[in-house]
Amino acid sequence: MTERFFFSAWLILSGCVLSGIALWVTAFGQSGPPTIRAEVSLVNIVFNAVDKRGRPVEGLRPEDFEIRENDQPQKIEYFSALGTGTEIPLTIALLIDTSGSVRDKLEFEKATAAEFLKQILSPNKDLALIIQFDSDVNLVQDFTQRQEDLLEALDSLRAGNNTSLYDAVYLASEEKLRHEVGRRVIVVITDGADTSSRVRKEEAIEAAQKADVLIYGIGVRSQGQQYDFGVLKKFAEETGGSFFSPRARFAEIQEAFQAIGEQIKGQYSLAYNPTDKTKDGSYRRIDIRCKVKGVRIRARKGYYAPEADS
Asked: Percent of the chain scored above 90 by pLDDT?
C-alpha cells in the first residue's frame, strides 16, 4: 500500500532559511564525473536555451553566454550541458490538482503523468515524488526511484475540493526539494487558480527560488469553464521553467508533458562567483543572455544571497 501523510499547519508556517548553495557542475576541461560542492559562494543556474518555437537548442558553449547580477557583468566559472547521459541526478516533484473541478479529466492527467515519469527518469539515479493538492496538500508518494511505486500512487488519486496551489509549491520546495542535490524540478498540473492556500504566492515563489527549483506548469483548459493561469505562468517565469495550456484532451496534455521532458533533457548549467561578496540575504537579479541569434534563455530571475553568520 502506498504510504500517505498530510503536511501539518506548522510546516506551512515554517520559515525559509538559506544555509548554503548546493552545487553540482562540471568545470571547463574537467575530466571524470562532476563533484558536489556545498556551502560555497558560487551561484549555480540551471536553465534552458530555446528557439522561437520553444524547442531546446543544443551544442551551445560557455562563450555563447554572458551573465549579469544586478546589472554587473559576471565571469562564468563552470558550464555544463545537461543532456541525455549526464551524471547529474534529476529530482522531480509532480504536483497534481485533485480539486472537484478536475474530476472529469483526472484520468487523462494521471495517464499522461505516468508516461512522462517513465520517459524522463533514469534508473538508479533520478528521483520523483507525487503530491496531490485540493483543500489539503497530501504527499502521496515520497522520493523514490521505483516507477511501480510512482504509478501506484498516481492510480490512487481521487478528486476532492478547492485548490491549495501555493501551499503545494511552497511545501514541495521548502520541505522536500531544497534538501536534494542536482537538478530540482516541480511539474504542476492544474485547471485553475488557487482558492484555499495559507501561504501567499510570493512566499511560494521565494521558497522555489531559494531551493533552486525550476517550475513547469500545465494549465488544463476545459470548454465552458473559467480559468486563470496568471500565477502559474508567474511561477514558471520567476524560476526558469515553462508554462503550457493544453485543452482537456489526452493528446494535448501528453504533448505538454513531452515538451517539458524535452526541455529538461536539454538543460544547461553554469556557475559564477559573484563580484558582490556581501552576505546580506538580499535578492539579486540575474540576467543570462545568449550571443547566438534567435536563441532565448529561460532561467530564474534571481536568487537570495546567503546571510552572514550570527
From this structure: 78
Residue 244 sits in the same domain as residue 126: yes
What are the cell numbers at 180? 536534494
Task: Pull the grid cell for residue 200.
Answer: 501567499
Q: Which residues form the domain of 296?
A: 23-82+266-304
Strand partners, 271: 44, 78
Nearest to 128 by CA among 180, 163, 164: 180
| 145 and 195 part of one domain | yes
129 & 78 share domain: no
**Under a CB-based contact definition with an 8 Å cutoff, are residues 66 and 287 in contact?**
no
Same domain assignment for residues 188 and 101: yes
User: Which pLDDT value is given to residue 310?
Assistant: 57
pLDDT tens, residue by residue, 18-62: 333 334 333 444 434 444 444 458 999 999 999 999 899 999 999
Q: Do 52 and 160 share a domain, yes or no? A: no
Q: What is the pLDDT of residues 189-213, one digit of tens each?
A: 999 889 999 999 999 999 999 999 9
Asked if 259 and 184 sit in the same domain, the reply is yes
